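PROTEIN DESIGN WORKSHEET
SECTION A - STRUCTURE
LENGTH: 207
TOKENS:
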């Protein structure tokens, strides 16, 4: 399921079941997500983070650290802020807590896309549960399937664009990833293996 954009005043459901996002008068791009963050709920330690290029925090390590610290302080389980949209440094974040994990999807506050951020967050959480095979998901289970978790986020969001919101389909695609591919450093991946992986992914998308 691909997220589409049309010039509408209110979000509507596309014919293929995808979500249609309204364009602003200024021609707002479809870059909805600025970052996906998974932290330790006990101390705020970063476990997995993906910042996208258009994010105001994407290229600045200090701003990333400050954002993560603030989100942890405001949305830790002791604050009971799960499910609420939290404003921070020009960003808006939605959060889910699960055992000893905090999972955030972050966007720009000015875009007003909290519902889409929440949809992406729910998709990621449900996909991680499917991949780990454990309910509820905890830090140990996440680390055991860390590479698959990273790939699952990439299947859900590409450069800030929400591509798919069907957890079962995302988990199935990720599970078909060639063994060891995610563990291989990018510089060591041969062109042939990269093309092979791309062909397999294309075939899975066309099924």
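SECTION B - SEQUENCE
RESIDUE ASSIGNMENT:
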């Amino acid at each position: 399921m691909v997220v589409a954009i049309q010039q509408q005043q209110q979000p509507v459901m596309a014919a293929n079941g995808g979500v249609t996002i309204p364009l602003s008068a200024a021609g707002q791009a479809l870059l909805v997500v600025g970052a996906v963050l998974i932290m330790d709920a006990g101390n705020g330690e970063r476990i997995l983070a993906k910042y996208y290029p258009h994010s105001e925090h994407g290229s600045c390590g200090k701003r990333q650290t400050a954002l993560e610290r603030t989100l942890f302080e405001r949305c830790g389980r002791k604050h009971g802020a799960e499910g609420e949209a939290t404003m921070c440094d020009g960003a808006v974040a939605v959060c889910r807590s699960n055992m000893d994990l905090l999972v955030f999807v972050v966007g720009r506050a000015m875009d007003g896309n909290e519902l889409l951020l929440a949809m992406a967050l729910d998709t990621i959480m449900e996909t991680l549960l499917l991949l780990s095979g454990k309910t509820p998901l905890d830090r140990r289970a996440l680390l055991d399937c860390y590479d698959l978790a990273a790939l699952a986020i990439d299947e859900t969001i590409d450069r800030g664009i929400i591509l798919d919101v069907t957890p079962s389909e995302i988990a199935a695609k990720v599970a078909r990833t060639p063994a060891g591919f995610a563990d291989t450093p990018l510089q060591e991946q041969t062109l042939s293996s990269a093309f092979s992986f791309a062909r397999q992914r294309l075939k899975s998308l066309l099924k």
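SECTION C - NOTES
Residues 1-29, 181-195 have pLDDT under 50 and may be disordered.
Residues 178-207 form one domain.
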